[in-house]
Specification:
Keywords: Methyltransferase, Transferase
Organism: Prauserella alba
Order of helices and strands: HHEHEHEEHEHHEHHHEE
Structural class: alpha/beta
Helix content: 25-40%
CATH architecture: 3-Layer(aba) Sandwich
GO biological process, one term: methylation
Number of domains: 1
Mean pLDDT: 92
Strand content: 15-25%
GO molecular function: methyltransferase activity
CATH class: Alpha Beta
Protein name: Class I SAM-dependent methyltransferase
Radius of gyration: 18 Å
Number of helices: 10
CATH superfamily: Vaccinia Virus protein VP39
CATH topology: Rossmann fold
Largest sheet: 8 strands, mixed
Number of strands: 8
Shape: globular
Length: about 260
């Protein structure tokens, strides 16, 4: 499937990101960097990706896990995953009630999805139910302190609630997990160089182009699009320092 067809088929509206679209590459690589940080936890494991979206993450995990199942509510996304990532069996289902028996999984991966859910505590309870004792929940979500600063109302219309580092830590613990690692995703040297080139923020430079434009009709300056398209997952850093300034929160939690 070419990139234009893929974007159209998956309704490229800002709700999800997909690979192979130059204008989306910053967001795609930012998400991909978190998957790379999680891959060691998936080695040899039975994994459910809850909220797989386009499926690129499940495809990455499939190269390391004993088994991975890609779950999403959206019928079009599941059809795309089945065609594009045959190593990751795709299942349509609701994250409010995971279609998995109790204590069957080693890992539940949930990247950039929690902020979309109306019942976040209920979802975490479902993750705890389907994980074996000692199983891990791998989770990322935007950091409210940097994604929507100075407001409890998310700017992204597809988000129900965003969390700060302390709020995410508290939620995970209250759901009955032990927090093994709480980290943040930051711009690495490559993206920081672009921040400097574009007046302090490569994110703002991109938003200036697309704000007020109809989807797919934004006129990107050639130099900006070239720079965005060249970003790699390796241009982001994931570490446990300065969590409040991180872009996305990255958590590994263990079911006791």
């Amino acid at each position: 499937m070419d990139t234009t067809t893929r974007a159209a088929a998956l309704h490229l509206t800002g709700e999800r990101t997909v690979p192979g679209v130059p204008e989306e590459n910053y967001w795609y690589r930012r998400h991909e960097a978190a998957y790379h940080a999680f891959l060691p936890y998936c080695s040899g494991a039975v994994v459910l990706e809850a909220g797989c979206g386009e499926g690129y993450g499940a495809g990455l995990i499939a190269d390391h896990a004993a088994q991975v199942v890609a779950l999403d509510y959206d019928h079009a996304a599941i059809g795309h995953v089945a065609r594009s990532y045959p190593a990751a069996p795709a299942v349509q289902g609701n994250l409010a009630t995971l279609p998995v028996a109790d204590a069957r999984l080693d890992v539940v991966a949930n990247l950039q999805v929690l902020e979309h859910l109306w019942d976040q505590y209920g979802f975490l309870a479902e993750c705890r139910r389907v994980l074996r004792p000692g199983g891990r929940l791998l989770l990322t979500t935007p950091n409210r302190l940097t994604f929507t600063p100075d407001s409890d109302t998310p700017l992204n219309p597809y988000h129900t609630r965003e969390l700060s580092p302390s709020e995410l830590d508290e939620m995970i613990r209250e759901a009955g997990f032990t927090v093994e690692w709480l980290a943040g995703l930051h711009h690495g040297a490559g993206v920081r160089a672009l921040d400097e080139r574009y007046g302090g923020s490569i994110i703002d430079a991109q938003l200036d182009v697309v704000m007020g434009s109809l989807p797919g009709q934004a006129q990107w300056p050639e130099a900006l699009l070239t720079d965005v398209a060249a970003i790699r997952a390796e241009d982001f850093d994931v570490h446990g320092h300065d969590l409040d300034a991180s872009l996305d929160l990255v958590a590994v939690a263990v079911r006791p």
